[in-house]
Design a protein that fits this description.
The complex is a heterodimer of chains A (276) and B (170). Chain A is of the alpha+beta class. Chain A has a domain of 159 residues: Rod shape-determining protein MreC, domain 1 (Thrombin, subunit H, Beta Barrel), CATH 2.40.10.340. Chain A is 35% helix and 28% strand. The radius of gyration of chain B is 16 Å and the shape is globular. Chain B has seven helices and no strands. Chain B has a single domain, classed as Orthogonal Bundle (Arp2/3 complex 21 kDa subunit ARPC3). By secondary structure, chain B is mainly α. The longest helix of chain B has 28 residues. Classes of the chains: A alpha+beta (276), B mainly alpha (170). At the A-B interface, α1, α2 and α3 of A face α1, α3, α4, α5 and α6 of B. Chain A: Pfam families: MreC. Chain A: Belongs to the MreC family. Chain A: Keywords: Cell shape, Coiled coil. Chain A: This is Cell shape-determining protein MreC.
Chain lengths: 276, 170
């Protein structure tokens, strides 16, 4: 009898907790202010602890990375070398269109955000938990950073700000797939929508009109269409694969990002907000 | 006062959050890290039974929700399930071997992570059901199996009610 009573109480507790979880999920889905404040407070409180632990554990982290990522670093080094050679070649080729040349120049260090101010930040932490790819930056609202601002590296777009406290901000990476980016294929009127796939460098682009003539190797930038959370012309990557669905009358593409989100040390937050 | 299980579990939860935020991120393996809050939920279930596992799992998941960017409440419901399941499994298996506890942790951890991803995808986070999920399930479950033994010790400490000051207060 006491056993069945205990089981009944456990069942009641579990049902109560499930209902509470559903309420929390609903409030979060509606963008409830208090839940956002809880996250900002947790970010503020835990940041100093994270910094301290990062300093203390840096030898352990280096040993860990060395043990598991040596091969990756060598492959990455080779890839960057090839990419560098390819870009140099493309820069000097006479057939490169004016727009592409402009994009390539931006890739080798010429600012691509124009007069829009940026805040230079350092990446202080990676993703907490195993889902929702994020990085934490060492500057926050006191530096003018606000939610939804685009975040770039010298190579291109990497994500947008999703949480801010006074001196910290959290960036959701574009590779995580939690949001879409409207893009434009340089040199064509083709536009589409890109989303992360969980890979550190590959995005999947879709909704491109099948009548548009696009090909692998073409550069993809943010379209900056009205209402888009990103300004126009932020480089995203190059098209590496192309699939056409004649029935749906649309083309989908694989986009290899210019920036590698697994190897971030610094990032710039573009102090830009969508118009309207 | 300090001897009350609820307070002791609160101390464990705060320690878990700090550990997850500060230490676990250092042990990143291709984007996958250990999940001590999930381990804490499972260990509470193993030590205290289904109800205890559900309650501790709920708060551990909520703590994870407050420090990550996934939907708020997703961790709470997934970890509550993992904690409750660990308690139920521990109750149905008659054993004393340490490796069986590790197996329970491995299995419930795998189910907890999968539930997290499946519910997340239902809530619009479709990227959670990518190829990466298999790697996350495997790595997190191995870490959970390794960490569950010290975690169950910590939970046993939390379960032991010893209010030393009570006689003096009478």
């Amino acid at each position: 009898m006491p056993n069945s009573r205990r089981r009944g109480r456990a069942r009641f507790t579990i049902v109560l907790l499930v209902l509470t979880s559903i309420v929390l999920l609903t409030l979060d889905g509606r963008g409830s202010g208090p839940l956002s404040s809880v996250r900002s407070a947790a970010l503020s409180v835990l940041s100093p602890v994270g910094d301290l632990a990062s300093t203390i554990f840096s030898p352990v982290r280096n040993a860990w990375s060395g043990a598991f990522e040596q091969d990756d670093l060598e492959i990455e080094n080779e890839r960057l070398q090839e990419e560098n050679d390819r870009l140099k070649g493309e820069l000097t080729a006479s057939s490169v269109s004016k727009e592409q040349l402009q994009q390539l120049l931006q890739l080798v260090g010429i600012p691509f955000v124009g007069d829009t101010p940026v805040v230079h930040t350092r990446v202080v932490s990676g993703t907490i938990g195993n889902f929702g790819e994020t990085v934490e930056l060492d500057k926050g609202s006191s530096s003018g950073i606000e939610k939804n601002m685009p975040v770039i590296t010298g190579e291109g777009l990497i994500g947008k700000v999703v949480q801010v406290s006074a001196d910290r901000s959290v960036v959701a990476l574009i590779t995580g797939g939690s949001f879409n980016v409207n893009f434009n294929v340089v040199g064509t009127p083709a536009i589409g929508t890109a989303q992360g796939t969980g890979s550190a460098t590959i995005l999947r682009g879709g909704s491109i009109d099948v009548r548009q003539s696009i090909s692998p190797g073409q550069i993809v930038v943010t379209s900056g269409l009205l209402g888009s959370p990103f300004p126009p012309n932020l480089p995203i990557g190059t098209i590496t694969a192309l699939r056409t669905d004649e029935a749906a009358r649309e083309t989908s593409v694989d986009i290899t990002m210019f920036a590698n989100t697994r190897d971030l040390t610094y990032a710039d937050v573009v102090l830009w907000k969508p118009v309207g | 006062m300090l001897g009350h299980p609820a307070l002791r579990y609160l101390i464990l939860l705060i320690t878990g959050v700090v550990f997850q935020r500060a230490v676990c991120v250092q042990f990143d393996l291709d984007g996958t890290t250990p999940d001590v809050l999930l381990v804490l939920a499972i260990a509470a279930g193993i030590v205290g039974g289904t109800e205890r596992g559900a309650i501790v799992g709920f708060f551990a998941g909520m703590a994870l929700d407050s420090i990550s960017v996934t939907p708020f409440g997703l961790g709470a419901v997934a970890y509550m399930g993992a904690g409750a399941l660990a308690g139920w499994m521990e109750g149905t298996i008659v054993h004393s071997a340490r490796w069986l506890t590790m197996v329970v942790a491995f299995v419930t951890s795998a189910l907890g992570v999968t539930a997290f991803a499946v519910i997340g995808s239902v809530l619009g986070q479709s990227q959670m059901l990518s190829d990466h999920l298999l790697q996350v399930v495997l790595v997190v479950s191995i870490w959970s199996a390794l960490l569950v033994i010290p975690a169950t010790r910590a939970c046993r400490w939390a379960e032991t009610y010893s209010d030393r000051f009570r006689p003096a207060m009478r």
